[in-house]
Amino acid sequence: MGNENKMREIRIEKLTLNIGSGKDAEKLEKAIRLLKSIAGQNPVKTTAKKRIPNWGLRPGLPIGCKLTIRKSRAKEIIARLLRANDNKLSESQFDGNGNVSFGINEYIDIPGVNYDPGIGVMGLEASITLERRGYRVKRRRLLKRKIAKSHCVTKDDAIGFMKNEFGAKIGEAE
Description:
Elements: E1 10-20, H1 25-39, E2 44-47, E3 62-69, H2 71-84, E4 88-90, E5 99-104, E6 124-132, H3 155-166, E7 169-171
Parallel strand pairs: 4-7
Antiparallel strand pairs: 1-3, 1-6, 2-3, 5-6
């Protein structure tokens, strides 16, 4: 076991929490309060990019909020979010690039988060991005390069990581 290649180790790059509120400003403020209570940091507002007259959207209109969490805090919050889903994930929630996305219908299912009458009942989406060491090569400013296919995180790698790291039960698509 001492000869394992550290470059093949899978790790959590980031956890992104997202709540879409549409053009309702009151719901957006509640969503911001909810994300702040779950993660303990301030979320950023997301804005519409396109004009959709039927929905009353125009570019620049705030339509949701999101929050990015990294390192050990991400691991703690992922464990809590998975407990809200009874540690169950389906294969359809994994993509081919090492990302896992799932939703939580009611935030009161998350351990450690109490019901707030000012927020009401609201759900959220969580996206986990997994990577290996060396992925900085594709994001750096100078001398960007592609990551070799053999080094990319596959769907099976991501499923194995979630099973080993968090004890997630992976089932078929529902």
